[in-house]
Amino acid sequence: MKPISLTGIKPTGKPHIGNYLGMYRPALDLMQKYQGMYFVADYHALTTMHDPATLRDLVYEVAASWLALGLDPDEAIFFRQSDIPEIPEFTWILSCFTSKGLLNRAHAYKAAVDENLTLGRDPDEGINAGLYNYPVLMAADILLYGSDVVPVGLDQKQHIEITRDIAEAFNRTYGDVLIVPEGIIQESVMKVPGIDGQKMSKSYNNTIPIFAPEKEVRKQVMRIVTDSKRPEDPKDTQDNTLFTLLSFFAPPDRLEEIRQLYLHGGAAYGELKKELAGLILTYFADARDRYADLMADKAYIDDVLATGARKARQMGQPYLAAVRKATGID
Ligand code: TRP
Which residue range is the domain that position 188 belongs to? Predict the structure, then answer.
């Protein structure tokens, strides 16, 4: 059997091209060398998402996105985290091997504490224990199936390190029971700028959505922030949001032409934005059709996820059994 590559995505927002370039595509590319496991991390979403209808909708949207963007459910194991009852059990066991100090230092928790302190509030105000234990749940996701590699964005690097620490602590106590995974951090396409030039992220409200109505995609692209240079002025391609986004979607020859127009004059931002919108819509045309079909057939999505969960549980149960045996909880 091929080594296992596993990744999860939290259903907390609509998929955008930053997610695609930084996460969906690299993760799907790994299918050639690895047995891919992909899941919708709804337990993780619950740390922040407390509206049931929205959570249900987003689980379907994220599942349909994976399938529309090329995940083949006959090849990959594709499932919903909360369909795996072994996960919460394993999370508890792992939490008994996680030093509390490690969790105190986790970036997301620390950022929340720092914000409270800045505002003169109690350090833990508004912070639930789910957010605090988030890295342990993620370690359970990864370690349950004996994952070899975990493709993630840079923002998840620390979580992979914590997972490795937890696995090593467990193995120090009981011998080599858990597989210590490697992160595959997507360095090259990590920095997809949003329309305002900051990193593209739902939290900055600067995304270009993949599956929104065509009008909305075009509107977002037209809102890309540019400077006030006229078409005939020479422009820098470096740190130019529009050029960077074009570089992901324009064919190499055309990109070179555009680069020359930037450097020597002739690049009109408005025209290039229209071109970019067209390129994006063409690039995702098939995926957008598939997405619409999938969202019209939720029973199919349910079916795919149920089959995936059965396979995932089959993979995980022997590891959990070994863990229970090692600990004496058997
Ligand atoms: N924490 C990840 C994120 O926010 C999602 C996730 C949950 C994950 N469990 C995982 C990613 C396991 C990789 C492996 O993006």
Answer: 4-192+298-327
